[in-house]
Amino acid sequence: MAAANGHMDVVSYLLDRGADTNIENNEKNTPLHWAALNGQIQVSEELIARGANASALNRYDRTPLDEAMSRGKQQVVDAIVAATAATSLASSSVQE
After folding, report:
1. How many independent structural domains does the chain possess?
2. Each residue's pLDDT tens digit, 63-72
3. What is the per-residue pLDDT across 18-36, written as a single tens digit (0 to 9) for each?
4. Does residue 2 belong to any structural domain of this protein?
5. Are the CB atoms for 14 and 1 separated by under 8 Å?
């Protein structure tokens, strides 16, 4: 619920203590799904930076990006795309 409601301080606290960024509820929504659905830009960026899977599929085969797009959360769409690209670039640089 912290991710869905934009409580960045709580999200950071939980992540700092080892919370699973990819935990799922009964509909297979992750914290990133909830952040995306509710337009939580900063939370979305932080979750991705901390290892959240932006390609995770929920029960309806929708990714967090799909959910943000379906709700018209363009800033979250942009943030997920940018954060995912930055994470991918950082990973490929380490592997080279």
Report:
1. 1
2. 999 999 999 9
3. 999 999 999 999 999 999 9
4. no
5. no
